[in-house]
Amino acid sequence: MPEAASYRKVDLHTHSTRSDGKLSPTQLIDLAAEQKVSLFALTDHDTLDGLSEARQRAAEHELSFINGVELSTQWNGIPLHMVALNFSDDNSALQAIVKQNQSIRLDRARRIADLLVKQGLPDLFDEASTLAGESQLGRPHFAQLLVEKGLVKDANKAFDRYLGNKRLGKLRDVWPELEDVLGALAEQGMELILAHPKRYPLTVTKLRRLLGDFSKWGGTGIEVASGNERPDHVRLLESLSTTFGLKASAGSDYHGPFGPWMQVGKFTQIHESQVDLVWQHWH
Ligand code: AMP
Ligand code: MN
Ligand code: MN
Ligand code: MN
Predict the structure, then answer these.
(1) Which InterPro entries does this UniProt record tie to the protein (predicted)?
(2) Given phi > 0 = left and psi -120 to 50 = alpha, else beta, which region is 26?
């Protein structure tokens, strides 16, 4: 017998074309409806641009829509992602952080292009900007160009060889400090969720230290499941969420149809009765 299902099928971590996803906000919501998701958040990287289109489309389906954004931050020099959920459209503290991150992102892209040139590659900045259009310009755009130009076999190789955190050197830690981002948002009534905690280069000891800081500085939850997370990792994260008094969130981190397991609304099953589900605080 599968564990009793939650009262709804949720997905609280997804991407559209407004950052590095493949589907427009409208297409993404249509797919979520098709997948029978009933509670959905769009969480593009460092932008709120897709929210109103997604919200409008969600209203045309039986779909509850939650505002979201995935913010780039850093802790002890390690880039970390934090998902903010359930904020109002006009939250100026959040808007200020998003704006700051967008300008860092653009500046970083220029410097990434320069770094690639130093390694003998063409200057991809203009093409990457064109490719991104009005979307948030990021490493996936550079990766796509490197693949299209036959300079690497696939996006994974592009990250391995050129774009991964290890390759970025000083460009790795350009983001605002986690403490400052949490400080600015902690009293704003939104959920502040540490995204995919097992995807960082941290031992469990260090992860515990991070969660201690995260909780002390006003973080409210962690993703206990992200896409096809290993079940033993989900068990560990469930246990850490309880230990640190952090709510449990979950999402697919869907960017597009990139693998057989990747689907909106799909993530490794969580033991719902053992955690404090963030969405059960919402009505
Ligand atoms: P950025 O936001 O510009 O730092 O780019 C980070 C994004 O790149 C992540 O959100 C992923 O969508 C994508 N990414 C990270 N690592 C890889 C990888 N190894 N292969 C493909 N895409 C990746
Ligand atoms: Mn991404
Ligand atoms: Mn992320
Ligand atoms: Mn994401």
Answers:
(1) PHP_dom, PHP_domain, Pol/His_phosphatase_N, Pol/histidinol_Pase-like
(2) alpha
2 CA to centre of ligand 2 in angstroms: 31
CATH 3.20.20.140 assigned to 4-90+190-281? yes
Cut 0.90: pTM above it: yes
The conformational region for residue 110 under phi > 0 = left, psi -120 to 50 = alpha, else beta, is: alpha
Rounded Cα distance between 33 and 219, Å, is: 30
Kindly state the helix (H) or strand (E) to which residue 89 belongs, with its residue range. none
Phi-psi region of 50 (alpha: psi -120 to 50; beta: other; left: phi over 0): alpha
Percent of residues, the chain, with pLDDT higher than 70: 98
Per-residue confidence (pLDDT) for residue 2, from 0 to 100:
44
Residues 26, 2: Cα–Cα separation, whole Å: 32
At residue 260, does pLDDT exceed 90? Answer: no
Among 159, 172, 253, 262, residue to substitute to test ligand 1 (most atoms within 8 Å of Cβ): 159
The pLDDT of residue 258: 83
Tokens of 149: 């130009």
- As a whole number, mean pLDDT of residues 44-68 equals 97
